[in-house]
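Worked example 3 (structure in, sequence out).
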C-alpha cells in the first residue's frame, strides 16, 4: 500500500467521546474492507479494553515502543506489539506503564516525532491508522498530532467545551512552531448530541436524560438550552470544515461492554449511522488525496 491516512483523535478533557469515536470510526472503515490499525496512546488503555483486549495480560505494549528510543531499554518495534482483535481491527495496545514514558520524553530533543517514526515501520501494511490520545496536553497528544495527516476533535455539550478548543489550539500552535507544519483539524464530532432541530436537543447523556424523566424542565428552560446548543454548534462550524453530531445512544455503552465497535454490534442505531457518515467522510477525503497525488 503506497498511500495511508493517519488520523489522531484529540481533546485534553476527558469524557468527550474521543475513544468511543476512534473505535467506532475504525469499525466502519474495517467493515468497508480497509486494513485498520488503532494505536492506543492513553495510559488508561480505554481503546485497548474497548476492543476486547485485557491490558494486564499483555507482555508488550506501546510503552515498550516508546521506551525503545532510550539507551538501556529493549529494541521493540511497533509490529512486535500489534495484536488482532475480534472486530478485525489491529491494535497497538496500551497499559498503565505508559505513564512512565513521558518524563523520559522531556529529556530528548526529538521527542515529538517518536510515534511518527514508529508508525513509519508499519504504514505500508494499513490503509488507515487511528491514534487515540489521552485527555491531557502532554507529549502523547503532541506525538499523535505530529504523526497524523488529520486530527478529529471531539466536543461534548458542556458549557466549557469551546474553552477546551481554545486550549487545543494552543497545542496546535506549538506543533506549528516546532515543525513548521499546520495541524489539519478538518473534522469535529459533537458527541451525546441530538441536534438543534430535535425537540429534545442537548440531552447531554444518561444523567441529564434521567433528570428529564424525573424532573422535567420547563418549556422556557428547554428553549434556552436549545438556543445555547444551537449557538455552540454554530461556533464549532466556523472552525472545522466538517462537523458531525452523534446522538446519545444506549447502544454505545452496550457495545463497549461487548469489546466491539458499534459498527459490529448496533450499526443501525442513531449513533451508528452517524459514525458511518464520519467514516465515509474520511474515505472520501482519502480518495481525494489519492487523486491529488
Amino acid at each position: 500500500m503506497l498511500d495511508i491516512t493517519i488520523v489522531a483523535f484529540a481533546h485534553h478533557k476527558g469524557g468527550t467521546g474521543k475513544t468511543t469515536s476512534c473505535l467506532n470510526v475504525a469499525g466502519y472503515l474495517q467493515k468497508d474492507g480497509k486494513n485498520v490499525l488503532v494505536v492506543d496512546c492513553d495510559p488508561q488503555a480505554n481503546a485497548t479494553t474497548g476492543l476486547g483486549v485485557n491490558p494486564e495480560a499483555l507482555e508488550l505494549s506501546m510503552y515498550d515502543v516508546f521506551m525503545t528510543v532510550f539507551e538501556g531499554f529493549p529494541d521493540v518495534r511497533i509490529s512486535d506489539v500489534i495484536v488482532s482483535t475480534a472486530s478485525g481491527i489491529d491494535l497497538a495496545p496500551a497499559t498503565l506503564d505508559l505513564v512512565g514514558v513521558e518524563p523520559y520524553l522531556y529529556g530528548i530533543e526529538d521527542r515529538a516525532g517518536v510515534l511518527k517514526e514508529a508508525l513509519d515501520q508499519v504504514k505500508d501494511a494499513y490503509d488507515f491508522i487511528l491514534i487515540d490520545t489521552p485527555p491531557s496536553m502532554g507529549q502523547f497528544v503532541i506525538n499523535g498530532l505530529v504523526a497524523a495527516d488529520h486530527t478529529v476533535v471531539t466536543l461534548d455539550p458542556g458549557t466549557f467545551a469551546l474553552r477546551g478548543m481554545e486550549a487545543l489550539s494552543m497545542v496546535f500552535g506549538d506543533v506549528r512552531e516546532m515543525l513548521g507544519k499546520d495541524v489539519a483539524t478538518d473534522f469535529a464530532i459533537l458527541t451525546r448530541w441530538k441536534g438543534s432541530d430535535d425537540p429534545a436537543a442537548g440531552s447531554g447523556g444518561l444523567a441529564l436524560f434521567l433528570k428529564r424523566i424525573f424532573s422535567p424542565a420547563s418549556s422556557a428552560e428547554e428553549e434556552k438550552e436549545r438556543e445555547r446548543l444551537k449557538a455552540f454548534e454554530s461556533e464549532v462550524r466556523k472552525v472545522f470544515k466538517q462537523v458531525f453530531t452523534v446522538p446519545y445512544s444506549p447502544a454505545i455503552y452496550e457495545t463497549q461492554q461487548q469489546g466491539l465497535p458499534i459498527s459490529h454490534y448496533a450499526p443501525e442505531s442513531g449513533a451508528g449511522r452517524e459514525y458511518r457518515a464520519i467514516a465515509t467522510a474520511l474515505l472520501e477525503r482519502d480518495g481525494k488525496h489519492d487523486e491529488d497525488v
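Notes: The domain at 5-194+245-292 is CATH 3.40.50.300 (Rossmann fold). Residues 185 and 239 are 9 Å apart (CA to CA).
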